[in-house]
Amino acid sequence: MRSALRIGGFLLFAAVVLVLPSRVSDFRAQELALVGIYFIAILGLNVLTGYTGVISLGHGAFMAVGAYTTAILVADHGVKDLYTIPIAGLVAFAAGFAFGIPALRLSGPYLALATFGIAVSTPIVIKKFDNLTGGTGGINLFESPDLTGAFFGVHVLGRTLTFNDWIYYLSWTIALALLVVAWAISVSPFGRALRAVRDNEIAATASGIWSASHKTFAFAVSAFYAGIAGSLLAIHANSVSPGGFQFDLSIKLLVGLAIGGLGALVPLAAGAAFLVYLPNWAQDLSKAPGVPGVIYGAVLIVLMLVIPGGVGGLLRRIASPLTTRLYARS
Amino acid sequence: MADLLQQVVSGTATGGVYALLALALVLIYRSTGVVNFAQGEMAMFSTFVCWELLDRGVPYWGAFFLTLLISFAGGVAIERLVVRPVERAMALTVVTVTIGLLILLNGAAAWIWKGEQRTLENPFTNRTFDVGGVVIAAQDLGIIAVSLAIVLALWAFFQRTTLGLALRASAVNPDSSRLHGVRVSWMLALGWGLAALLGAVAGVLVAPTQGSFDQNLMLPILIYAFAAAVLGGLDSPVGAVVGGVVLGIALNLIGAYIDFLADLRLPSALFLILVVLLARPQGLFGREAVRRV
Amino acid sequence: MRLVRLTAVALALTAGVASARPAADPGVTSNEIVIGGTIPLSGIAQSYASVGKGAEAYFKYVNAKGGVNRRKITYKYLDDQYNPSSTVQVTRQLVQQEHVFAIFNSLGTEHNLSIRAYLNAAKVPQLFVGSGATTFGRDYKRYPYTIGYLPSYVGEGKVYARHILKTKPSAKIGVLVQNDDYGKDLLNGFRAGLGAKSRNIVSMQSYDSLETEVSSQIARLKSSGAKIFVLIATPPFVIRGLKSAATLGWKPQIYVNQVGSATNIMRIVALTANPQIIEGAITIQAYKDPTSPRFGRDRGMLLYRRIMKRYLPRADANDGFHVYSMAVAYTFVDALRKTGKNVTRAGILRAVQNLNEPSNPFILPGIVVKTSPTDHFPIEQGQLYRWHGNQWNPLGKVISAKP
Asked: E strands within B79-172?
């Protein structure tokens, strides 16, 4: 019964994703694409934090790795943008693995603050190696012939999509695929092992689960998601620069995860939407200095007090009496 | 040689600044088990409160102690209003609440004090001493002295008073503390109040070192304070001060003597901290967490 | 019945007019022109918010007097938190959703770089970029829709270099520079201006804007034996750098770049470090300093104060960014007038390439805001100022600051 609800929810979600662009303006489509991109990054963070309990304050750095992989390949090596997306994911995966091997020997807040260190360092390192990264000005992809349909639209299946619709469908197709992957991980033996490690590391180790390597692998998988999201972000913005990857990006992702709900899947999209729309909305209410920040902070705190488990936790709370009732009847 | 010593001295001074905020982070972690992202903004807000009092003509030390009182009350209020409801929620929820507080306090300060540059009086003299070509500022000595005094006071409080013991106990094991008659929830509020008070000391002493300040006073300093606290051990006040000073000196020496890393002094220092942590996962002075099976 | 027929005629007329004329450019109607831009209204660079507010106030003043050719100017400036990714997103919103006529006065070097290619492909004018980066004026052949405003950083660097060559040609020089494009641009100009004498630069120290102190860098500069100290830094780091220099007892001749030399910043240094350290410091200015008694009865500054009082009563009128902001807005209004009654993007581009303002009320007297189809640097002059008696005092006449 619970899996039926899950599948039903997923299909409904996919249907909404499919028809949404025809209901909104062209600009709104690319804004929704941004939601999809954050959704991917948050899904990845959830593989780490939701399944293993490790909090990362550094996933913005892996987004930067993905974004710069795509930007450098497209701008300097003439690789078609679409092909760079999986490459960006793999490079980020490798980076996550390399960082995870030593870092995951740390625990709790020490680990969280170690990941914060990479988030802080990322823009400074990007600026230092300006031959490769273009320094503070970054890399502009807009004039590259390998960027798909940046201005004149994209021809897909006999139809011409605007760039905004194109980036929407691209981001959300990948997001839905990675959503299924995240679900598959959670029900796989690997996912069960991760949860065992999270709930009781010592007992899990005693029953033969090698916790460090599992956690490292989970860290790398979540970095893969961040890399894909970063790559899409570069294509979406047609540019990358270190200013876009300051440490606040990592903190934003964590906020998105908390709003979406730790351990949830589809509801994480709500967390992504929060990141994209709340700042705009706060600014629409008032432009007085500081007031948008007050609104943003206050809404975030109130949401956490009202739904400490995020949107996912709320839905679970609503759904669980329902499933219990249905079970009782049948 | 004088150059090297000058780098060490100014690194120590900068480290003292990090240590002050790191002490507040350590205090709140030790007494409530929370890594408080809003600690820097609470300190910044207190600094503005002190500025406002001075601006309204309150004499310096009156304003200083009044600020400490207001900050203590503010810390207790924050705990009661927004932290207590999520006390039993997941770590992620609590962290997110402190992030919300960070954004809220920063915005509120920008709103109330209009985001303009303000200056705060230096409580120490502006005198400097020249020791064999090395310049030492009285202000920097003052900051180091205050952070050491805080370490002593915290040690005495945690080790020698019943209240301190109760505070430690309720952070480590709330349930058995409750069984022993400790009013755990008020202990947590007390922890927040004391951390806010320490943050106020940090803010009021740090702001003059920066020349001027606005609502973004503590955003960069918080990063260094986190690094210092982690290096020293999140539950160790001595560690916070040593961590801060070591970090300050390391940043200066890397920047001044390794040309390739001059632009990378912060990432390099953070990398060194990671290396230290691999050898000592609980930081230089932190106590190893004993895991119960 | 009569009414119905009249309406029908009116409808037919408007339809006829609409089809007769070529479709108007976005953002322009018979009574309004909508322009937009990005300004940091929150976050780390929030103090630049006045760069948007001053212009908005000036447009309100112009609108109250009837606008330009009976069109009112609506200036939509949105927050980008000084984050280039967000600049891209917000600029798209302005172009695709708000359908602005032009992007005006967006702030920041990287920020404008990240939208330049897009705006040029979309054929949206990117007017009076809020950055002195030389590329915005220099690369107009590749980016014809983009134009800068401020004296270029390269030009500014050359001015300081020339002054040093004239006054202390053999003195050792130490430089503190921010590790980004703006820092590099200004430093390049400074070096080019020194020419062979750039070997006099005995020490160069950089900082990242995440740093909290520059005392280490200043100690290095001092021990290099430099007698001239050039600060290519933003206000917080100008304050910290000069404060450290004072603490260490270093007494060089100081040059502060325009980005960080506002009077209120220098007064903070005088107050918190010591007043001697900045005595005789040199900077360049292009727009009028609202704190200067020299402009106490100046007509431009009287107008400035009137507009501030009327439209921004709660803001700090001594904040020079407001003056700068009104200067840009004045030039935009001027260009719009020159465009004529039929406002098109092509028209405004022609106008901004043929500016000639001998007396922009907010710009220093003697400086002409001038462009041509082959010169896309509106302001290429400046005046050196010397710090004395707790204020900036002009040092010589208006001079060239060509890149």
From this structure: 128-131, 134-137
- B96 near A CB under 8 A: yes
Average pLDDT score, chain C: 91
Residues B137-154 have a mean pLDDT of 94
> CA distances (Å), A287 to each of A302, B113, B115, C46, C111, in order?
21, 15, 13, 12, 20
The pLDDT of residue A324: 64
DSSP per-residue letters across C350-387: HHHTT-EETT-TTBPTT--EE-BTTB--S--EEEEEEE
What pLDDT score was predicted for residue B213? 93
Cα–Cα distance between C124 and C62 in angstroms, integer? 24
Spatial neighbors of A215 by CB under 8 A, at least 6 apart, are A52, A54, A100, A104, A194, A197
Is residue A23 less than 8 Å (CB to CB) from chain C? no
**Could you tell me which residue, C330 or C314, shows the higher pLDDT?**
C330
| Nearest-angstrom CA–CA distance, B24 and A55 | 22
| Site from C207, C212, C222, C318 to mutate, B interface, most B CB atoms within 10 angstroms | C212
How many CB contacts within 8 angstroms connect chain B with chain C? 97
- Residues C1-6, mean pLDDT to the nearest whole number: 39
Distances in whole angstroms, Cα of residue B55 to Cα of each of A8, B119, B120? 62, 10, 10
**According to the model, what pLDDT value does residue C17 have?**
40
C39: left (phi over 0), alpha (psi -120 to 50) or beta: beta
Whether A55 sits inside 8 A of B100 (CB atoms) is: no
Q: Which pLDDT belongs to residue C11?
A: 39
Shortest CA gap A167–chain B (Å): 30
> Mean pLDDT throughout A295-323?
89
Asked if A127's CB is within 8 angstroms of C180's CB, the reply is yes
Phi and psi (nearest 5°) for A263? Answer: 85, -5
| A328: confidence class by pLDDT, cuts 50, 70, 90 | low
Is C166 a residue whose pLDDT tops 80?
Answer: yes
Q: Give the pLDDT confidence score for residue A202 in this predicted structure.
A: 75
Q: Which among A28, A136, A142 has the least Cβ separation from residue C118?
A: A142
B 217-256 residues with CB < 8 A to C: 219-221, 223-224, 251-252, 255-256
